Every structure is written in structure tokens, then in C-alpha cells.
Amino acid sequence: xxxxxxxxxxxxxxxxxxxxxxxxxxxxxxxxxxxxxxxxxxxxxxxxxxxxxxxxxxxxxxxxxxxxxxxxxxxxxxxxxxxxxxxxxxxxxxxxxxxxxxxxxxxxxxxxxxxxxxxxxxxxxxxxxxxxxxxxxxxxxxxxxxxxxxxxxxxxxxxxxxxxxxxxxxxxxxxxxxxxxxxxxxxxxxxxxxxxxxxxxxxxxxxxxxxxxxxxxxxxxxxxxxxxxxxxxxxxxxxxxxxxxxxxxxxxxxxxxxxxxxxxxxxxxxxxxxxxxx
Length: 278
Hints:
Layout: H1 14-37, H2 40-56, H3 67-82, H4 96-99, E1 106-108, H5 120-135, H6 139-151, H7 155-162, H8 166-185, E2 190-192, H9 200-216, H10 229-248, H11 255-277
Antiparallel strand pairs: 1-2
Helix pairs in contact: 1-2, 1-3, 1-6, 2-3, 2-11, 3-7, 5-8, 5-10, 6-8, 6-10, 7-8, 8-10, 9-10
């Protein structure tokens, strides 16, 4: 997330820093809004309110943390204020046992496990399923997942943004990934699952290693030959969910929104100038 010039942001004047920051992070913030709020209008409001608050509070940024951490801290608080609980929205997350498929009689049948489908319609359908799964997460689990797997912040950055210990971030993130995986596979073709090859604890230990590798963006460090078929299927589905989340985070800030935000900051600058001249 950190740009080459990010450490110099605190040395810039507000009217030079924020348009540049808008160009660098506006697209990600807009995707955050889309994934969190679920619609274009609220996503635009999120970007605009975040940058207007950043404009007003720019003199508080001292460069003691990455400017992205500072910006997303503001954005996360805006998200919290914008959150309107929808009818039927869950307030709690299922237990780990309910999210894990280890005891299931069936498992997903995928020709190329963990790979995005080449068929465009199937691809779009999977993206919609992941969007729906993210929107259905309780807010305390939704924001860490979006910040990590959609936006690309590190666990340490998310902990700073949300004022949580990294271990708490990991716990919420890992369970959110399992919920997304469960929703994603719900309507995929199934086949009978083979009997477990290992004790449950072995599979849980392997799952922990898999989640840690996703957190770090690193290859899974365990030889696939030692994995049972159930674990291979689960890990492939987690990979698929992660790839789709990353795809949901791609895209530039729409130009019309960029202009709205720039105009709003210009208006705020003019107001400040008028106040100082009176």
C-alpha cells in the first residue's frame, strides 16, 4: 500500500497533498464504499466525506504513521457512521465448527480447483456471490475482510486503522474468509466427500498455516502431497474467494466523483479563505 513518496506527504501543503492522495487512493476508497455500502451513491458519499474530513484535519497528520493508515482510519470511522443495519442482517458470526466443511458429506466439484472460471457469465456470477457474501457479514467482520482482501492493507495497518490487536484482526479476517467460502460454494456442483484422512486437529493446523500464507501473500509452504482431498478442496476454495476479492478491489475512481471531491475541497478552501479575511 505504501507509495514511494508517501513518507514526504506530511511535508506537503494541504492543497497539494490531498489531490495527489485522491488520485492514489480514491479508487480503493470507492471500492471500499461499494463493498461496504453496496451502492454507488453511498460509495461516493464515503469518498467525499473521507476527503473533506482529511482536508479539515490535515494539520493533524504529522507523518508518524503511513498516510494510508491515517486516511483509512478516517474512512473506517465514516463507514461506522454510515452503517445502517438492514433487515435480517446478522449481528453475530457462526462458530468455527459451523463454518468449516470438515464433516460435510459432500464437497465442491471443480474442474480446476481454485482457478477463476473462463466462462464470462460464470465469472460474473461468482463475483456477485462474493459481493453478496461480503455484504452479509456482520460489520465487525466485514471491514477487516474488505481492508485486507479487497483493498490490500496489511494486518498491522488494519490493526492501527481499527484500533485492534493484529491477532484480533486475524481471528475476524479468517472467519470472514470461511463465511465467504461457504457462500461461494453453496450453489456449485458437488461430489461425495471422501472420509477424513487425518485427525481434525491436523486439518485445523494446516488451515491455520493456509490462512497465514494468505495473510502474507505468500505461497502455501506445505507440500500438497501431504494434504488430504478435503483440505485441498477447502484451500482451493479459499484461493478462489481471495482472487475474487482482489478483483472486486480493482478499478479507478470514476472521473465524475473525482471532480465532485476536488470541487468540494476547493469550496472548503474558499470558505476558509473568506473566514480568514473577515
